[in-house]
Each structure stands twice: as C-alpha cells, then as structure tokens.
C-alpha cells in the first residue's frame, strides 16, 4: 500500500530535492560552476532518498533495468568533481533521462493540473512528446 500523506520526512525530502534542482540550475546559469553543480547533485540524491526512504532508493538505483542510468549518473558526477563540469553534466543528464524516463507520464498528469502549465502541456506538440511514453510506467 502506497502512502500519499505528507509527513515531515517527505516535506524535508521534497525541500532537499527542490534545493538540489535549484542549485543545479544556478550552477548551469553561472557557466557550469562545479561547486554549485556538485552541491545540487548531492542535495537532489539525498532529497530523493529522504522522500522515498533509503531502502526504496537503493532498490530503485540497483535494479537491473536501471544499471545503465545509475552508472552513467555516477560517472558523470565523478567527472564533474574531477573538474570537467560540462562533460560531467552531459553524462549525468543522459543517466537522469534513463533513470527517470518511466516517470514522464506521471509528470505529465501532474503538470496538466497546474493552472498555466496545464494549458501549455495540453498543446498538440507538447502533448505528443508525453504521449510517446504512455503505457511505459515503471512500478515503484
């Protein structure tokens, strides 16, 4: 049974995930600053693990179908730390897309319920992008 209630742990996890996305965005805006990008990655991964739990996070990242995404995300992070932020972010983005591609339909439904973004997502071209992934949901 899946619990959709927002307890304090999930609120903290979503906050950490949000700060991770924000710091990653700032790192890209400031010409791929490796400190901000690294902080964003650490906050994002820790936020996801706090939100869904450590056991579920390990199961998600260690699933056989997610190995390619997990390895490329980790290698990208390592390359970013070593001093090549643009190459690291490209490899991380590839891993991120592989890991979270099963969540696009859920994201599409969520975005359709937001007032202004919902209208945008329902436009024919953008809707066709989300329709490609329909039916490919990954059970969590």
Set down the secondary structure blueprint.
Elements: H1 8-29, H2 34-52, H3 54-62, H4 67-82, H5 85-100, H6 104-112, H7 115-121, H8 124-131
Transmembrane segments: 12-32, 38-57, 69-87
Membrane topology: Multi-pass membrane protein
GO cellular component, one term: cytosol
Mind explaining what this structure looks like?
- The protein has 140 residues and is mainly alpha-helical.
- It has a domain at 8-102.
- Helices cover 76% and strands 0% of the residues.
- The protein has 8 helices and no strands.
- Helix 1 (8-29) packs antiparallel against helix 2 (34-52) and helix 6 (104-112) packs across helix 7.
- The longest helix has 22 residues, at 8-29.
- The N and C termini lie close together (11 Å).
């Amino acid at each position: 049974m899946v619990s959709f209630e927002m307890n304090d742990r999930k609120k903290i996890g979503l906050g950490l995930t949000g700060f991770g996305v924000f710091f990653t965005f700032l790192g890209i805006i400031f010409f791929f600053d490796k400190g901000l990008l690294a902080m964003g990655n650490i906050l994002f991964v820790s936020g996801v693990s706090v939100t869904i739990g450590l056991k579920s996070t390990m199961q998600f990242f260690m699933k056989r179908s997610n190995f390619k995404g997990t390895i490329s995300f980790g290698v990208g992070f390592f390359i970013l730390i070593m001093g090549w932020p643009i190459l690291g972010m490209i490899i991380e983005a590839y891993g991120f897309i592989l890991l979270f591609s099963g969540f696009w339909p859920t994201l599409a439904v969520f975005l359709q319920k937001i007032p202004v973004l919902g209208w945008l997502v329902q436009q024919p071209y953008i809707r066709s992008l989300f329709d490609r992934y329909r039916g490919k949901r990954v059970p969590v």
